[in-house]
Amino acid sequence: MSRKQQYLFLNFGLAISILLFINVLYFSTNNWDVRRIFYPQDSVRLISTSKLPVNLTKGIKRILFWTEYFGHEDFPSLELGPTGVDVQRQFCDYGCEFTTNKELISSSDALIFHGRDLKTESFEVRESSLVRPNHIPTERNASQYWIFYLLESPVNTFVPLEAFNNFFNLTMTYRTDSDIYVPYQRLVKITETELQNETPNRKLLQKKSKMVAWIVSNCETQSKRELLVKELKKYIQVDVYGSCGENSCSSHGRDNGLACYEEIGKSYKFYLSFENTLCTDYVTEKFFNALATGMVPIVYGGANYSQHAPKGSYIDARSFSSMKELASYLLNLDKYDKLYLKYFQWKKHFRVENVTVLQRSWCRLCRALSTGEVPLVRTVSNLKSWWMRYRNSTVCTTPDLPETLELL
Ligand SMILES: *[C@@H]1O[C@H](CO)[C@@H](O)[C@H](O)[C@H]1NC(C)=O
Ligand SMILES: *[C@@H]1O[C@H](CO)[C@@H](O)[C@H](O)[C@H]1NC(C)=O
Ligand SMILES: *[C@@H]1O[C@H](CO)[C@@H](O)[C@H](O)[C@H]1NC(C)=O
Ligand SMILES: *[C@@H]1O[C@H](CO)[C@@H](O)[C@H](O)[C@H]1NC(C)=O
Ligand SMILES: *[C@@H]1O[C@H](CO)[C@@H](O)[C@H](O)[C@H]1NC(C)=O
Ligand SMILES: *[C@@H]1O[C@H](CO)[C@@H](O)[C@H](O)[C@H]1NC(C)=O
């Protein structure tokens, strides 16, 4: 290389370097507040990689509530009874120990993360440095189950679930294809003695002087149920209870608690069990509470209701071509007691199980861990696509309600 060549080469190199530097400077300043998602599992150190099967018959299972529950720190004491340590035997055949004490992590069989309390802002990168989510454990035991627990629908999840791929071992939701399936409620077969006091008869009708009730506190929803009710009101009396309506329950406690259903169940014939989102398997206490308190539920949702209760125990709003048609069907049932009472035939065989969804959750989890119902080793590889899609289609649908409000 001649001196001149060397000189040119150096200059060239220098020019490239300056260009690169400007480039880096440009992009780094330009992307200064770009927020990348931080993948929490990348920072969790795996300890004890031995996958030796735990002896499942040995010892009582310890379950650690790692996150809060809608901001409540006392997650396990919610409906676990006064001690807050083990599932009450009165509603569960299995006993487990529940705790929020994070120091017990290494001796816990499972960790529960409530989906809505996974704090999203801490997964972002700010000013080029990783912000470590403070609520993610730093180590994980390969034989411990990390559980994604959620009873809300995908529309109301509000968490970037893509950050949690390969993070959880088990899903625990109201979706029937969860590893641990937790329905809000369920019907159970009744015994002979229970049958005696449950025969549907005209006595039930004595105080039922009103038509349709609806308890609601979420006034504008993705399912657009509020528009349907507005339309229905043109043809039939609908009394709205709760913060979106003009009526309120006199019973103590929350307006949407069972006590309120019991109160209105005495005087109303029908109840609008309209879900806030139309999602696969999403059927909530709105449906079961109506069944439990002597009203005929009028359902509107994305679940297959015949999998939850016998046909003929409810009326599906989506099987009518308009709200006008639904109203005239209801008015006809009001006129003919015999037709109305047919909707209570199911009571000869079933009752709504008297256990809350949280009690059921902990019992099912305890049973799954105690009996080894769940896979020994599993990782939920794509949480988001599982949660948002079901059998290749989206889990939730948006109703396409035209101005005329015709149903499907
Ligand atoms: C598990 O523990 C039970 C009770 O201690 C014992 O009887 C059983 O043999 C153990 N099973 C295995 C596979 O170690
Ligand atoms: C991992 O979990 C198993 C089963 O819960 C437990 O026996 C073991 O001590 C744990 N190991 C560590 C290092 O925490
Ligand atoms: C609803 O569930 C019933 C009972 O499992 C089944 O026969 C029916 O095909 C399902 N309907 C739909 C639309 O999936
Ligand atoms: C249902 O639960 C309530 C409150 O815990 C209780 O008072 C009642 O006896 C229960 N009924 C049945 C049938 O278990
Ligand atoms: C849970 O998933 C993690 C991450 O893939 C894995 O290391 C661990 O062994 C799994 N645990 C169980 C009990 O399946
Ligand atoms: C989903 O789509 C994939 C690719 O088109 C197909 O192979 C698979 O069988 C589908 N699954 C279901 C349950 O329809």
From TrEMBL:
It comes from the Eukaryota. Keywords: Glycosyltransferase, Golgi apparatus, Membrane, Transferase, Transmembrane, Transmembrane helix. One of its GO terms (molecular function) is fucosyltransferase activity. InterPro entries: Glyco_tran_10_C, Glyco_tran_10_N, Glyco_trans_10. One of its GO terms (cellular component) is Golgi cisterna membrane. The keyword Transferase applies. The chain crosses the membrane at residues 7-27. Residues 206-386 form the Fucosyltransferase C-terminal domain. It is a single-pass type II membrane protein. Residues 61-185 form the Fucosyltransferase N-terminal domain. The keyword Transferase applies. Belongs to the glycosyltransferase 10 family. It is found in: Golgi apparatus, Golgi stack membrane. Its main location: Golgi. Its EC number is 2.4.1.-. This is Fucosyltransferase.
